[in-house]
Design brief:
This protein has 155 residues and is of the alpha+beta class. The protein has helices at 4-10, 12-22, 66-73, 105-115; strands spanning 29-37, 43-53, 56-62, 76-81, 91-102, 123-139, 147-154. The chain has one domain (4-154): Pnp Oxidase, Chain A, CATH 2.30.110.10. The longest helix is centred in the N-terminal third of the chain and has 11 residues, at 12-22.
Length: 155
């Protein structure tokens, strides 16, 4: 597993693409679909706010949320940037890995101060560590030769 910082050191262009798709309108907060694993092994899918701070990715999740208990029992996740407004590129960005709970209140407060996110007291902070990244775009869109082009990275 690697941090976003490590990933962007290894693949700066792919990381820049990911930031553009994850954070299209605000530099520190973006929105994505977030998949976790339920205790019975079934997948669960949720929308989340993704936080970017100091070259790392985070999520804040209410302690009472099913996705929080999912991550506390099985740290695996997958995240897909919300589909962009239709454009010529029709791009997608996906990451997966492990969510690492951050229990230090000082660290949590520093993140809130840096990004100005609004956080509830009961929310648990997780850093998103990366195992896989994939950027997909459609080539030759709208033609008989239309096909996906994937750019992948693995920790």
């Amino acid at each position: 597993m690697k941090t976003w910082y490590d990933f962007q050191e290894e693949q700066p262009a792919l990381a820049e693409t990911g930031k553009r798709l994850l954070f299209p309108s605000r530099p520190h907060v973006g929105y994505a679909f977030f998949a976790t694993i339920r205790k019975d092994g079934a997948p669960r899918l949720h929308p989340v706010s993704v936080i970017y701070s100091q070259d790392h990715l985070y999520v804040l999740i209410p302690r009472t949320s099913p996705k929080c208990s999912d991550l506390l029992s099985d740290r695996r996740y997958a995240l897909q940037a919300f589909p962009p407004v239709p454009n010529d590129e029709n791009e997608e960005f996906y990451i997966s890995g492990l969510a690492n709970p951050i229990r230090e209140p000082e660290f949590r407060q520093a993140l809130i101060d840096d990004t100005h996110v609004i956080a509830e007291e009961d929310e648990v902070l997780f850093e998103l560590l990366l195992d896989r990244v994939m950027h997909t775009r459609l080539a030759d869109q709208g033609t008989p030769g239309e096909h996906p082009v994937h750019e992948k990275w693995r920790a």
